[in-house]
Design goal:
CATH superfamily of one domain: FAD/NAD(P)-binding domain
Shape: globular
CATH topology of one domain: FAD/NAD(P)-binding domain
Number of strands: 29
Structural class: alpha+beta
CATH architecture of one domain: 3-Layer(bba) Sandwich
Radius of gyration: 24 Å
Helix content: 25-40%
Bound molecules: flavin-adenine dinucleotide, iron/sulfur cluster
Number of helices: 18
Largest sheet: 8 strands, mixed
Length: 621
């Protein structure tokens, strides 16, 4: 059953002026700017509500997660847009925030000999090792002597996403002009005659298949003159708009990454100063980037990004994160550290090329889901914030002029502002920056350098295909390293003892076992327990569905199981994976980590990732 099966009479409805979907940095920027413009200096409404005449416009924001502090991101940001909104910003007012003091970019050599390095990279590694007395090499890592300006965050900030959104939420709600409702997922946009007329909230009191159960309560319809969609990279509301209205010609969303992170308590004797930023590349696989940001009070945020162009059918972020942490260059700082929180989330890496229609009748798109993330500078928070600010400026202009939220008006007031903004200018420079990675790591790095240093004039291209088409069979991926017959044996053995295929294959390929220490290096299951409670309230439908069981039965790689950040997807009956809602951290990685293309839309896979409740409860991520 879908939400539409409840009769209109059963479904409650409410009218507001503006409804927002999701509370991340984009909606934070939107509501901060909007709230500041809704009243006059004497407190009287600057503009009037359409649904409550005499009052300021009624603005409501629905956030899926159980609290507004449960976002996931490490954040180093230039904070240009954020500082413009808060000119007197004092970072010490935001828990865990710190000004950026020192930035390092480090190439990690492979200390264990298991990583898949091309001949060119192996040659480079040998040369670096041979010349290590002359180069800034220590602990199997080369610190780059120069960081190009496009990668630096001079004058920027380190933030915790959870603490930052909590701080912004308090500022916004303190105005009394905006309501933010966490724990309230939006199921879908209400599309009527080509216009978005508001949103429908998720049905409650259903069984796992969505059928009415005890306490059934159909999701309310929230009707609004304007719907602001800021639901992030894998937001189901934004994706439903894309399915309905299509993407602009030539645009696509084929490049993704899963970011997996921890917040850790550093050991007492750790020499890293607050404000230190370390970015790494080269290890555990050359395609994987890493980050370590040091907050005040010996706290740090660290993690890795596993991109869609790492063509591995067993690309497991958790195991790779652990190999990254024990690299000698990082382990010298992390030995004795304690895990405080853990999280994972998908990033939209198509950047401006993934931009949807930014405005239509009754709706606008902001933030990462609107293609704002800059794939050259590796920056998404400030860009998302800035798109929210631009949208609010446009909306205020229309409200003050008493003009309706038609597509034409929204394009003039919002999209035109965005086209002349720094987000757009820098997004255009970055547009082709990462195409080289589609050919390999070396061309990827050279391409990024070329694009950054020439202001986007030069780039290296690569064959862009949807992720499902990039995932090879296990036998192909491990050709030359593990014989095909042995792979079959390993899989059978893992199936018998319900073991993890990726662990077995990685160990067979030479990766050492993780030296668990019970406080930082812990099993995946322990990370789910120690790193922030994962919770799924009862009475909601499953939000991960396997649309074509026959394709799953025939699927050899089962990358969905290997990749799942929460171990929420596991082997199921007859070869069709099983989904365990209680373990899902809502990272969205299953949306693009599937080896089969949707029969009716080659840009999609056969996994459906819908709106859901619950997820990871950690206020520090
Ligand atoms: C591990 C990691 C590290 C990162 N590091 C950096 C960094 O150092 N610097 C940087 O600038 N960027 C970084 N990013 C990227 C950055 O986090 C994003 O670009 C940014 O958060 C995008 O903001 P947003 O508001 O568009 O979306 P989001 O932050 O994704 O917020 C969207 C919100 O919408 C909610 N939502 C989704 N669907 C629904 C629904 N149906 N109903 C209601 N609510 C919904 C979500 O729960 C979420 O809270 C990192 C990302 C990750 C994962
Ligand atoms: S969802 Fe099905 S087809 Fe896709 S990777 Fe998983 S098992 Fe394979
Ligand atoms: S099932 Fe949940 S935890 Fe697993 S990949 Fe999908 S969204 Fe992430």
């Amino acid at each position: 059953m879908t939400d539409t099966m409840a009769s209109a009479a059963d479904r409650q409805a409410m009218d507001v002026d503006i409804v927002c979907v999701g509370f991340g940095p984009a909606t934070g920027g939107f509501l901060t700017t909007l709230a500041a413009g809704l009243t006059n200096p004497d407190g009287t409404p600057a503009v009037e509500s359409r649904v409550m005449p005499g009052m300021p416009p009624q603005v409501i924001c629905y956030e899926r997660a159980d609290d507004i502090v449960f976002g996931v991101s490490g954040i180093v940001t230039g904070a240009r847009g954020i500082r413009a909104s808060f000119p007197n910003l004092n970072p010490s007012e935001i828990p865990m925030a710190a000004p950026v003091r020192e930035e390092r970019v480090v190439y990690l050599l492979d200390p264990v000999g298991a990583s898949r390095r091309s001949a060119i990279l192996r040659l480079a590694d040998c040369s670096i090792r041979a010349l290590q007395r002359l180069l800034p090499v220590e602990d199997d890592a080369l610190r780059l002597p120069y960081i190009p300006s496009f990668l630096r965050k001079d004058g920027g900030l380190l933030l915790s996403m959870g603490q930052f959104t909590q701080w912004v939420g308090a500022q916004v709600m303190g105005t009394g002009l905006v309501q933010i409702w966490p724990g309230t997922p939006v199921a879908r946009p209400l599309i009527e005659d080509g216009r978005v007329a508001g949103v429908r909230l998720l049905d409650q009191g259903t069984d796992r298949a969505g059928h009415p159960d005890a306490g059934f309560l159909p999701g309310m319809d929230v009707r609004a003159s304007l719907t602001v969609v800021g639901d992030g990279p894998v937001g189901p509301v934004g994706r439903q708009l894309d399915e309905h209205f299509g993407l602009p010609a030539g645009h696509h969303r084929r490049e993704w990454a899963v970011g997996m992170k921890m917040v850790v308590e550093l050991p007492d004797d750790c020499a890293l100063e607050p404000g230190t930023v370390v970015h790494t590349f080269g290890y555990p696989e050359p395609e994987i980037f890493g980050f370590l940001y040091v907050y005040p009070d010996r706290l740090a945020s660290l993690g890795i990004f596993v991109p869609s162009w790492l063509d591995s059918p067993v690309r497991t972020a958790y195991r790779y994160l652990q190999h990254w942490m024990v690299h000698p260059y990082l382990w010298r700082h992390l030995r004795g550290a304690k895990l405080r929180s853990w999280g994972a989330k998908t990033l939209q890496e198509s950047g401006r090329r993934g931009e949807p229609h930014l405005a239509g009748h009754g709706y606008i798109r902001i933030g990462e889901g609107s293609g704002s993330t800059n794939v050259l500078t590796g920056s998404g928070v400030d860009e998302a914030w800035a798109t929210g600010v631009l949208a609010a400026e446009g909306v205020l202009e229309l409200l003050r002029a008493g003009q309706p939220f038609t597509q034409k008006n929204l394009e003039r007031a919002y999209v035109a502002r965005r086209r002349v903004s720094w987000v757009e200018a820098e997004g255009r420079v970055a547009e082709r920056a990462r195409d080289g990675f589609l050919r390999g790591v070396v061309s990827g790095l050279v391409g990024m350098g070329l694009t950054g240093l020439t202001g986007g004039r030069l780039a290296l291209g690569g064959p862009s295909v949807p992720p499902a088409k990039r995932i090879p069979a296990l036998e192909t991926f491990y050709a030359g390293r593990i014989p095909a017959a042995e792979i079959v044996r390993i899989r059978e053995d893992c199936a018998k003892r319900a073991g993890s295929v990726h662990d077995a294959l990685m160990e067979r390929a030479g990766w050492p076992a993780i030296p668990y220490d019970g406080q930082l290096l812990v099993t995946h299951q322990d990370a789910l327990l120690m790193g922030g409670k994962v919770q799924a309230p009862a009475g909601y439908a499953d939000h991960v569905l396997f649309l074509y069981p026959n394709l799953c039965e025939a699927c050899g790689s089962k990358v969905c199981i290997e990749m799942c950040s929460g171990q929420a997807i596991g082997p199921g009956d007859g070869g069709v994976p099983a989904f365990d809602r209680e373990k899902c951290v809502h990272c969205g990685a299953c949306l693009w980590n599937c080896a089969a293309s949707h029969p009716e839309d080659p840009e999609r896979t056969v996994i459906e990732f819908r709106t859901g409740t619950g997820g990871l409860h950690s206020a520090e991520n």
